[in-house]
Amino acid sequence: MVKLYKSFDINKNHKESIILIGNFDGVHLGHQKLFKLAKSYKKKYNLKIGVINFEPMPKMFFNKSLKNFKLSSINQKLNLLNNLGVDFIVTKKFDKIFSKTKSINFIKNILSKKLKARFIFVSNNFRFGNKREGDVRFLIQNEEKYNYQVIKPKPFLINKKIVSSSLIRSCLEKGFLEKTNKLLNRRWSIEGMVQKGRQVGKKVGFPTCNIDIKDYVLAKPGVYAVSVSRKNNFKTLKGIANLGYRPTFNQKKILLEVHLFNFSGNLYNKHLSVEFLKFIRKEKKFKNINKLRSQIKLDLKIAKRAT
Predict the structure, then answer these.
(1) Pairing of strands 271-282, 189-195
(2) Residues with Cβ within 8 Å of residue 275, at least 6 apart in sequence
């Protein structure tokens, strides 16, 4: 099992390792290719693999208005990295004090002194240090002095486009779910606790589990076919979900509502993982509940055919 750290004070057996630095949001195909390369170095040099990432993501720290941005929660990210053969993960709290670290001090005190990094994997556009002063070139300039080697893999392309977290966010916002899932190499999912809602679904005749999407990226508001599982429970249930503002009921807050097929029971305060299978239609305002009910019946037929 992967070892988790909240600081750069790591165990002796994790020093002198292969270090990958980045957000790794979504742990998409590009990231997966990077970890495959790191594993070849692990085998060749008999070293451990470590990841450095930051929480909150620096982009969100510097831009407080950036709310719905993440492709994966911390928990999802850790599980995905664990499955890719990572030995340890350092999730460093990104705050005002740390943001002022000079790039040379990051190399000298953290990468060299604390981690004793042997290989450092970074993307071409990697920036670090106070006001993003450090870049890949600066890292390479200091290789000999601090006894590490920078590995700068080529970006992973699909249809001549670089596979990136920002490309996947854009696909989700446009409702291109099939493309999103292809770039992730799995189904995109949201995890969250079921909350007590306004009981609107019950009134319409389709009771729902309400999940706050927190800082997940906002996929195109609309109706989706979904697959749902509970924490520590391998059984999955099919369902239909509405992600949006429920314009028929003048809801102002974005919400994920999930109606499960062939299920009865209480899921309040339970932790659910909702996988998005198919985008059915965009959200719209209906004249009355009867028209909404008729549309939901049509949506259900499509959702039940989705695999």
Answers:
(1) antiparallel
(2) 187, 188, 189, 226, 227, 228, 229, 236
φ, ψ of residue 102 to 5 degrees: the values are -70, 145
Q: What does the alpha-carbon distance between residue 209 and residue 70 come to, in Å, rounded to a whole number?
A: 22
Say whether both 117 and 48 belong to one domain: yes
Same domain, 126 and 270: no
Q: What CATH number should be reported for the domain holding residue 259?
A: 2.40.30.30
CA distances 274 to 211, 231, 297, Å, are 10, 11, 21
Whether the CA torsion 190, 195, 201, 206 is positive or negative: it is positive
In this prediction the pTM is 0.91
Q: Which helix (H) or strand (E) holds 22?
A: none
| pLDDT (tens digit per residue) in 114-172 | 999 999 999 888 999 999 999 999 999 999 999 999 999 988 999 999 999 999 999 99
Q: Which amino acid is at 9?
A: D
44 Rama sector, left if φ>0, alpha if ψ -120 to 50, beta otherwise: alpha
What is the overall mean pLDDT for the chain? 91
Which has the closest alpha carbon to 201: 145, 241, 155, 151? 241
Question: Has residue 213 been placed in a domain?
Answer: yes
Cα dist. 158→178, 189, 260 in Å?
A: 14, 22, 35
122 and 150 Cβ atoms separated by less than 8 Å: yes
Q: Do 143 and 208 share a domain, yes or no? A: no
Burial class (CB in 10 A: 0-12, 13-18, 19+), 55: middle
Closest to 187 measured CA to CA, from 53, 67, 306, 270: 306
Report how far residue 25's alpha carbon sits from residue 22's, in angstroms, rounded to the nearest whole number. Answer: 8
Q: Round to whole Å and give the CA distance between 88 and 4.
A: 6
